[in-house]
Amino acid sequence: MSRRQRKSELKATLWFMPLWYIVGAIGLSAFTFYLDYVVDVSLYLPAAVGFSGQTLQVLLSALVGGVLTLSAFTINSLLVALTTFSGQFSSKMLVNFVSDRATQHVLGIFNGSFIYVLLNFLYVTHEEEEYIVATPVLSILTAITAAVTFIYFINHTTTWMQVHNISFNMNAKSKWVQASLEKELKPYHLEREVVSESFPPETDGKIIKSSQSGYLQVADFSRLIKQANRDNSLLRFEVKIGEFIVEGAPVLTYWEYGQTVNPERYSKFLEIGVKQTEIQDLEYGLIKLAEVAIKALGHNDPLTVTNTIHQIADLLKSIGQSTNFSPYLFDQEQELRIILKQKDFRYYLHKGFASIREYANRNSTVMVELLTMVSLLSKTMDQEVHDDLWEFAHQTILGFDKDSLYENDCLYILEQLSELAKNTGNQKDYLFLLEYMLQRVSTKSASKMPFSP
Prior knowledge:
This protein has helices spanning about 5-10, 15-40, 55-90, 95-100, 100-125, 135-160, 165-185, 220-230, 265, 280-300, 300-320, 345-360, 365-380, 385-400, 405-425, 425-440, 445; strands at about 50, 130, 205-210, 215-220, 235, 245, 250-255, 270-275, 330, 335-340. The chain is of the alpha+beta class.
């Protein structure tokens, strides 16, 4: 497992952050013991602040039970939240909630507080003449912190579960993945044209096959380029990041420019696992957002569907800008070393909206919202993708299997089509779709429709 993937996996687990809080609690408990039994700070503070040993044990036993009860309520709330996310939205969202830093800090505070108060309880004696200050003061402050944290966690859970926050957080995570990948690859891109005629013959290429079935999760491009530079070779990816491959399927093709290459050197820089991850996979973020919208369609929740479509449109705009990156990666000597397998904007547009379109079926409201977002994208994106946007809208209209439409539904759909036709320069094709749509409304209503874009 690569360092980057290991870091991502640790963030997605619940035990890593609480472990640090437990270590901190043990250290704080040792410091408290030092203040009370080595330095004896009670000699320098008023007598009203301290507790006798027996009274302190009663206090600590109550605090241990109280903190443990709060922890139990927190875990119960967490389980309810996870169950709700899985059933109402998507099981893929569980990782997002668990990996959220606020969630992990809350669990860490409860575990650390319980361990701290419990350790303090263990070394306090029953002696009446014993006078202790630091232990009761810090233990009470710890219990107060746990109580306040419980309130914060309830607020955090209810806020996180709101539709707009869910879709926005998923969109932000995908954008962060995209920005991270662009930053990683930017030093290896050059502003120069590469012609396929300059590539070595296909027959000279040697194939590296997968040793196991699974998803291509991570590729260490930096090390691959350095290794290809040392071997004086050219690599070409046969699969894209996030794609599923079976054992024995081609993963890389390499060409040797002189010395013999050991293919095992390249295989160790590729991570293949049993699940998809968002470390370098832009498509996975789109799939998760689309799944939320599909789940909402099944629950008759139009607000969630609409909000998710908006976030998908925003993510598509960001991806559309990044797909202009060249698939060719160069080393420091400006020699071509890696050819990536990339998908165009049309592919991501299909992944983001096509499944929602399919499950929406006869829901004209969802169709109008999809076309509205496609029209909005045409206003903000380069002309290179205008044909893809219009083609998606064209297919959406032709595949809208409904014998008849309400007048307003048809009007709203044609409004968005008209706007999209203007932005993409497809006014002639719009007239054909106009005729197609008018067949679905009454003749009286058809006279109110916009006949020209």
